């Protein structure tokens, strides 16, 4: 079970508002120009299978279109949720429970205290709170504090193999990919995802060879150099 807590309300995504990327979709002049210069997009939309979200069809009136989907996800967000609620969920689930959205040492320690088996360091892709610290900035100090007590995973802004290697070097047990596979999925379906994962694997293997590392176990903070004094102390 994974509970996401890094977005208790929608952020003010100004770029999405400018481009009309909203629910329901608002077609702007810029969007019309994009369709005009790339007519294959429109042709593909009209000739391919109608967009569906089968996992939601039992929960949402799909006849309501994008607005119904938006309302469903909005209603799933509960700003009143607190640590006692999460502790009760962990207790009732009585199995592996991961808390996604941890961004501080104090919260990581509290996740350990209530019995979580894993945490994901994440700021929801950096798209919600302008000026917030990145997930990577938090990683080393959280691993130092609780890495021997709980599985620490990493998420946010991962676009290539070197990003994965840096996170693993700082002690992340795994790295989550979101936009990295969603973009090729939208562009080319399964073939696009397979191509993206192939590029990721090739870069991981090539760069580990260039670093002189034969296995993931050999990745450590000593592979990295930081300007930040905390990270620099840890690396040395």
Q: Helices, strands, pairings?
A:
Layout: E1 2-4, H1 14-19, H2 29-37, H3 39-47, H4 65-76, H5 83-93, E2 98-102, H6 105-113, E3 118-121, H7 135-146, E4 151-155, H8 161-169, E5 174-176, H9 179-211, H10 229-235
Termini Cα gap: 37 Å
Strand order in the sheet with the most strands: 1-2-3-4-5
Based on secondary structure, the structural category is alpha/beta
Number of domains: 2
Number of helical stretches of at least 4 residues? 10
CATH topology label of the largest domain = TIM Barrel
Q: Just give the CATH class of the largest domain.
A: Alpha Beta
Question: Your description of this structure?
Answer:
The chain folds into 2 domains: 62 residues, no CATH class; 153 residues, Aldolase class I (TIM Barrel, Alpha-Beta Barrel), CATH 3.20.20.70. The mean pLDDT is 85. α6 crosses α7 and α8 packs across α9. The protein has 10 helices and 5 strands; from the N terminus they run βαααααβαβαβαβαα. The protein has a 5-stranded parallel sheet, with helices on one face. The longest helix has 33 residues. With 236 residues, the protein is α/β, with parallel strands linked by helices. β2, α6 and β3 form a beta-alpha-beta unit.
In short:
Helix content is 50%, strand content 8%. It has helices spanning 14-19, 29-37, 39-47, 65-76, 83-93, 105-113, 135-146, 161-169, 179-211, 229-235; strands at residues 2-4, 98-102, 118-121, 151-155, 174-176.
């Amino acid at each position: 079970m994974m509970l996401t807590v890094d977005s208790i309300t929608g952020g003010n995504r100004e770029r999405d508002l400018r481009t009309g990327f909203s629910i329901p979709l608002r077609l702007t002049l810029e969007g019309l120009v994009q369709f005009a210069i790339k007519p294959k997009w429109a042709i593909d939309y009209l000739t391919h299978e109608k967009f569906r979200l089968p996992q939601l069809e039992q929960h949402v009136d799909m006849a309501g279109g994008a607005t119904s989907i938006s309302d469903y996800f909005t209603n799933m967000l509960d700003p009143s949720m607190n640590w006692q609620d999460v502790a009760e969920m962990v207790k009732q689930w009585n199995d592996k429970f991961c808390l996604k959205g941890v961004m501080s040492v104090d919260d990581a320690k509290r996740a350990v205290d209530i019995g979580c088996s894993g945490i994901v360091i994440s700021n929801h892709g950096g798209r919600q709170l302008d000026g917030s610290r990145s997930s990577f900035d938090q990683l080393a100090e959280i691993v130092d504090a609780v890495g021997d007590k709980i599985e620490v995973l990493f998420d946010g802004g991962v676009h290539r193999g070197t990003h994965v290697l840096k996170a693993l070097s700082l002690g992340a047990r795994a790295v989550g990919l979101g936009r990295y596979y969603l973009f090729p999925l939208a562009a080319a379906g399964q073939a696009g995802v397979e191509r993206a994962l192939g590029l990721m694997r090739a870069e991981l293997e090539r760069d580990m060879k260039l670093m002189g590392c034969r296995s993931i176990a050999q990745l450590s903070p000593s592979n990295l150099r930081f300007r930040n004094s905390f990270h620099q102390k840890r690396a040395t």
